[in-house]
Amino acid sequence: MNARTSILGGVFAFVLATSCCWLPALAVLLGGAAGVLSLSEQMASLSGPLMVLAAGFIGYGFYRKWRPFRAEASPDQFIPDSLITCPFCGHQKMETMPVDACQYFYACEGCEQVLKPKPGDCCVFCSYGSEKCPPIQLDQACC
Length: 143
Known about the structure:
By secondary structure, the protein is mainly alpha-helical.
């Protein structure tokens, strides 16, 4: 389960948990349906467990989104080296990627151009390397 799914699940559970409050008002605005009011009374008994479920989903989503990268991950879980190819001159060099930081700039040894990540990428390895950076390889949030 990724962070976005967790947060959306939490929001959905929160909407269900609070339906005993907003559902009667909606029913009155729409013409006062008696069936909706009785459903609202039944949902009130589930409000507590649904609020706990909502808080759990949202908390887990935030944890997945902003948890720190664990530098102690074993090397066999990701590929530590990446072949960077310069888009200007085509020069290639094998580099070892940092495990605990993102590399935003890289000076090409062939043409001395400074490479920056492409829009949407977190680092130069994700943009110009043969392998994505370690956090992306491990399905974790990048810097």
